[in-house]
Design a protein that fits this description.
Layout (H helix, E strand, L loop, with lengths): L1 H17 L9 H5 L3 H17 L15 H13 L18 H10 L14 H16 L7 H4 L6 H35 L2 E3 L5 E3 L6
Antiparallel strand pairs: 1-2
Protein name: Calponin-homology (CH) domain-containing protein
Pfam family, one: CH
Keywords: Actin-binding, Repeat
């Protein structure tokens, strides 16, 4: 069984190398033998390469941000601009009171969050509400618990990983909405015209059944 596990991990590592993912001092035996430090480092490398580095946000002067992390931070700042008590400056303490998570959800789905009833002092409730709403209404896995965030020094990588899931979800929803509008505008012009028995022109609109 061990040899099979090593072969499987080798295939995964080879794929990462083909994708030009930098792997430093990690081999299949490290993962199979349960080296926590190297395994967690590899997981973060995968998240960084395939979830975070693809993020590109243009600034007001139409320039792309310098790094994917900066781009994600800028996206969060843009989406939460104007929300009281929300001032995102980092991926650690700026999220402790839970308001930033709720603001992100409210900005895109105001029907899910009554943001103006939230208070900065009730961090545990704020975080729990945001995490539950994201999981139950948006289908985003609950990667964090309130105590993981409402602490003196929250883990930056953990918060980035969770926030990235919001970015990709809402970006996908925006793309689908734009595509839906585009299709909706094109359908009327593409439908064949027919004459109405009483005169005039109608369009043949197919029925859904």
């Amino acid at each position: 069984m061990r040899i099979h596990s090593l072969e499987n991990v080798d295939k995964a590592l080879q794929f990462l190398k083909e994708q030009r993912v930098h792997l430093e001092n990690v081999g299949s035996h490290d993962i199979v033998d349960g080296n926590h430090r190297l395994t967690l480092g590899l997981i973060w490398t995968i998240i960084l390469r395939f979830q975070i580095q693809v993020i590109k946000i243009k600034t007001e002067d139409n320039r792309e941000t310098r790094s994917a992390k900066d781009a994600l931070l800028l996206w969060c700042q843009m989406k939460t601009a104007g929300y009281p008590e929300v001032n995102i400056q980092n991926f650690t303490t700026s999220w402790r009171d839970g308001l930033a998570f709720n603001a992100l959800i409210h900005r895109h789905r105001p029907d899910l969050i009554d943001f103006h009833k939230l208070t900065k002092s009730n961090a545990t409730y704020n975080l729990q509400q945001a995490f539950n709403t994201a999981e139950q209404q948006l289908g985003l896995s609950k990667l964090l618990d309130p105590e993981d965030v409402n602490m003196e020094d929250p883990d930056e990588k953990s918060i980035i990983t969770y926030v990235v899931s919001f970015y990709h979800y809402f970006s996908k929803m925006k793309a689908l909405a734009v595509e839906g509008k585009r299709i909706g505008k094109n359908i009327p012009s593409q439908l064949p015209r027919t004459s109405h028995p009483r005169g005039g022109i109608t369009r043949n609109i197919p029925t859904p059944w």
